[in-house]
Each structure stands twice: as structure tokens, then as C-alpha cells.
Amino acid sequence: MRRILLAAAAALIGFVPAVRAEFPERPVTMIMPYAPGAADALMRAVGEHFQRATGQPLVLQTRDGASGVVGMRVVAGAAADGYTLGHTPVTAIAVQPHLLRNAGIGPASFEGVCGTNENVITVAVRADSPMRDLPGLVAEARRRPLSFGSPGPNSLPQLAIWKVQQATGIELNHIPYRGEPPHINDTLAGRLDFSAAIVSSAAELVMAGRMRLLAVFSANRHPDFPDVPTAREQGIDAQLFSQVGIYAPRGTPAPVLDRLESACQAALQDATVLRVLANSRSPVRFVGRAALTEWVRGEYENYGRILRELGVQPE
């Protein structure tokens, strides 16, 4: 009998599956859903740290279009194994699905991995503008019509200005552009009264003395421009937070997400990564995966309400 039991035990041992090797076992693809820019420089720096920490490279792949939707569709449709990720501002997940009838994605399509940095939104004017702060802009709008540019219709900078209008009752003429440089150039040329933009897009012109920032719409002042107060500090209840983050397909196993989250957090403490973020005037802001997933779902609901109030219909 003892021999039979030993033989049976040996047979069972043969059927025990091998322990899965630690993730990652091969290169990880990072989908970049916008045209190449500062985000690519950040992810290349993160990738260098990732390879040192895990032994596997982070391969960047640009899949831009439809304000980030094209690339994030690729992420949502990939195998939920952690080997395909996407790095994006909240726009592609929480705003664009309300604007495109067949976007095919939404917060439920993804698992948050980590928040990486913040795109701080601002109001920028020419250096010789008579408007010195946000209340000054509001007062000027009550005296005469003002026009402003943004990087696109229903972009986050435009929605930040919409919040100013809601808080103060002023009317403003919005002129949407394709991207940041054209409307900033028109503000410099005097064809627009101000630009609603990301701080990093106007930073060099501010440093050169050609533009001024009137306010930021974050919860805190921008570390590179500490003299520029937030909208709320100026008595105007208009806050709009633009967190940039890394996302995985829905259903990615928790141990894989934990490993990616840890790698992300460590990378955001790396000197090279911090230098890249500092050069792009984009404050580092790590957010854990659970908090990021919950936050983006709340933002989806918030933007749905805002866009309905604006009368925007999906196309």
C-alpha cells in the first residue's frame, strides 16, 4: 500500500503546473495616442528606468488620432496581460467618449496603472495686455467682447474657461484651433485677447517676457510660476485638474497591475525622469492605480454633465 501511495504522489507531482515566471517576461508596448511630443520624452526616460528595474524594454508606439481615442482603442482591445499599456491625459477616456457616438471606449475599458504628471491649465495673455489677473479679465469682458483660443473644441483648456463663464456670468467668444501653437501665436499677434492653454505650451514665452499667466486652474500653484495664483485663490470657483496617467486593458490581473504600479512609482523618483518633467514644466504627480481608476470614472460623469450643459451632441 505504501508503494502505491508513493507512486500516486509521484504521479500527482508530475501534474503540478510550473510556477509562472515573474512579469514581465518580454518587452512591454506603450501606446502613445497623440502626436510625438513631451510625453514621448517622458516615457522614454521612464522606459530606461523600467528596463533597468525589470530587464525588459518599454517600446513606444504612436497611434494618434481622434484626440487620443484611436490609440486608446488599441489598448482597450489588447490582451489583458500587462504587455500593452497606454499613456494619456484624461481627455481620451473621460471627454472624447461623450463626443464620439462610436468611440468604443470609456472608463470601464481600462484599469488604472498610475498617474504620472499633471498638465496644468492656464490663461495666457501678451505681456503688454491690460489684464493683470483673472478678475481683471472678467471685468474687461463686461466692458467689451473678448475672444480666446484653445487647442480644440471641447478641449480641457476650453472647458476651464467655460467654468469661469459659469462662475461669473460673462460671455466670451471661443475660437478653437488645432493644437496649441496656432492660437498662442494669434494671441501674441493681437488677434486674440488671450489663450487657454497648458502651462508647458506657453512657458518659454513667459520666461522670455513675451507672455504672462493670469491664473492656473489646478488645486495648487505651478512650482515654476509660484507668483501665479489659482483661479480659486482669486475668488473664482473654476478648477479643472488634468491628470496624465498610464492605463492597462480591463481585466489585467492584479499582481501584474501591482508590479506595473510599483515600477511607475519608482520611475517617478528617478533623477532623469524628474529632469524631463521639469524641462517640460509638467509637475510630477504620482497617483496609485486604485485612486486613478476611481478618479477617471468620476471625471467621466463630470464631463458628461458639463458637455450636456454646453449642448454638445456626439458625432
Supply the key terms.
single chain; five-stranded mixed sheet; alpha/beta; 11 helices; 315 residues; D-Maltodextrin-Binding Protein, domain 2; globular; 2 domains; BUG; six-stranded mixed sheet; receptor; Tripartite-type tricarboxylate transporter, receptor component TctC; 11 strands
Can you give a write-up of this model?
With 315 residues, the chain is of the alpha/beta class. The chain has 2 domains: 28-118 and 242-309, Bordetella uptake gene, domain 1 (D-Maltodextrin-Binding Protein, domain 2), CATH 3.40.190; 121-234, Periplasmic binding protein-like II (D-Maltodextrin-Binding Protein, domain 2), CATH 3.40.190.10. The protein is built from 11 helices and 11 strands. The chain has helices spanning 2-15, 38-54, 69-77, 91-99, 134-143, 156-168, 180-188, 199-207, 254-267, 271-279, 289-309, and strands at 28-32, 58-62, 84-89, 110-118, 121-126, 147-150, 173-176, 194-198, 211-216, 243-249, 284-287. The strands form 2 sheets. A 6-stranded mixed β-sheet has the order 2-1-3-10-4-11, sandwiched between helices. A 5-stranded mixed β-sheet has the order 7-6-8-5-9. Helix 2 (38-54) crosses helix 9, helix 2 packs antiparallel against helix 10 and helix 4 (91-99) packs parallel to helix 11. The radius of gyration is 23 Å and the shape is globular. Belongs to the UPF0065 (bug) family. Keywords: Receptor, Signal. This is Tripartite-type tricarboxylate transporter, receptor component TctC.
